[in-house]
UniProtKB/TrEMBL annotation:
The lineage of its organism: Eukaryota, Metazoa, Chordata, Craniata, Vertebrata. Coiled coil: none annotated. Residues 6-167 form the Dynein heavy chain tail domain. This is DYH5 protein. One of its GO terms (biological process) is microtubule-based movement. GO terms for cellular component: axonemal dynein complex. It comes from Daphoenositta chrysoptera. It holds the Pfam family DHC_N1.
């Protein structure tokens, strides 16, 4: 029971750390007012990397051994652990899915940033079609919060492109 107690302490420390990561990932992002849509993709890529690393650690043999010892000892700390494991898996799946969908917009980021306003306008119908596809098919990204953020960033990029065009011309 002494070993079980020590292992439970370790799992409680992990639980606290994982909760902190989950809380931080849900906090509102602070971004510059003029950030473009590529920042959205970078955010989700970073989040995917963080949660995948966390999942890899949780699935490591060391952690699995500790969890199986605590299961054999019928530890009460495992309930919280299982909930957190599920939350991490959901967060990792969300980030992976969002990256996959946002990559479909990647081909528009260059023209949005570097083209003339006329060329940008030519890309708008297919860009909007792709955004609509994301909204209709993504199980995670189709919230008004995500869509508003994406449209804001697309608009920021278009404004920046037009300002640059006017100042250089």
């Amino acid at each position: 029971s002494e070993v079980t107690g020590k292992l439970e302490e370790v799992v409680m420390i992990w639980t606290k750390q994982i909760r902190q990561v989950l809380v931080e990932s849900e906090q509102i992002r602070r971004e510059a007012d003029d950030v473009g849509p590529s920042a959205e993709l970078e955010h989700w890529k970073s989040r995917m990397s963080s949660f995948n690393s966390l999942l890899d650690e949780i699935k490591s043999s060391r952690v699995k051994k500790i969890i199986s010892i605590l299961q054999a000892a019928r530890s009460k700390t495992l309930k919280q652990w299982k909930e957190l494991d599920g939350s991490i898996t959901i967060a990792a799946n969300e980030a992976k899915d969002n990256v996959r969908y946002l990559y479909t917009l990647d081909k528009f980021f260059g023209p949005l940033a570097n083209a003339s306003p006329v060329t940008v306008m030519e890309h708008i119908p297919s860009l909007m079609n792709t955004v609509r596809m994301i909204y209709c098919t993504s199980p995670y990204y189709n919230t008004s919060e995500h869509m508003t953020s994406l449209f804001l960033k697309i608009t920021n990029q278009m404004i920046h492109t037009c300002k640059t065009y006017l100042c250089e011309g």
